């Protein structure tokens, strides 16, 4: 199980810092008025200094990344938005609005700026400057294919000692944390007199080797961290497809590094990704999902986004708050024999996100299907059948399910043993362990994980499914009452015999 090295207290402090506007330079908000597939006002707020943009291929992640870069006049628009002369009018009437902090210009109020593409050129009046580091997908091109390093791949290449440099210790230590390997003894060589072209070198078992023998991911990480650590404070860091060339855990560790450097150097980072691992260290406020020209805040898995894009015969969409309630809803639907082949089921990382997505979907005249939303018992959102918002039983879902089974453990012990693959002759031991875990666990989110550990490392998913299915079997009347208004409001919901 992944566990972040970033403290929750650091996450909270960074959220508060953004909320209080305590930055010298900070891009607070981007409003896409008409840019590519974003035809309406689509707003993204950077509530956390490290922001992830997730979407399937072609979803619009790079458009948002490039739009953010245009907030600063030292970034050339052609870096992200190129055109083919007068024959290409695809950017006609594009408009992007920005809200940003620049204490050098105004110490009390955010700046409001508008970038517009008119008369075949970008109009950006009196935009501020800021250090912007852009790491595109080309960063993972192997050294042997990099044009600027061709001169190093010959027998005539000579290295002068004065051009060989040691890395800062901060660079080495962070590279090691991300890659999970020692880079002691690694150096870099200045190839040109201006120090803009560098060749990396490594060492293993006392054998030195050049960057031509590095992995593409290893090289890109070292170069990225070199540049970030040597940059000015308050820089804006843009990374496209952050997971490129990296192991999934290394991807999560790179995001942890960005959070750490945001704390140390007040940087702001925005990255695009197709990797759920890149989202693991981040709070809900830091993740924005892009789908069908719409932008929404909160964690939504890549697989869910793909399903939203490619399911063709959807008759109803169901939104829940988190992964557990999505699983609970899926097992309820199976228990009640609803036809899952025409139902899209998604969790959106929070009750507010789920309610908002449900509202926007049902107000959209071009929607592919109506939607309903199930919120948790502890949600401050209002459940209302007219708005297609319903409240799940109990207060905290995990705790509700677990406590119900515990309260009825003597009645369900045999069935639970069979569902868990536990020896039915050991029912008494199972009963003892279920009670023990509830007594010892402070965080109800960990109940099923800890019980799985007690049951000879039974998977957490197996435990959850066993408990939820048992709960469903004992609460048919509650489920009938919960779903009765849905059949009236959404008659297209199919039920199989």
**Termini separation (Å)?**
40 Å
The percentage of residues in β strands lies in 15-25%
> In terms of per-residue confidence, which ranges show pLDDT below 50 for 5 or more consecutive residues?
308-312, 490-497
Summing up helix and strand content along with how strands pair, one would put the structural category as alpha/beta
Principal-axes geometry comes out as globular
Query: Spatial order of the strands in the main sheet?
Result: 7-12-13-3-14-15
Round the mean pLDDT to the nearest integer and report it: 86
- Output the number of helix runs: 14
**What is the alpha-carbon Rg in Å?**
26 Å
Q: How many β-strands, per DSSP?
A: 19
Instruction: Classify the helix fraction into a percent range.
Output: 25-40%
Summarize the main sheet. Answer: 6 strands, mixed
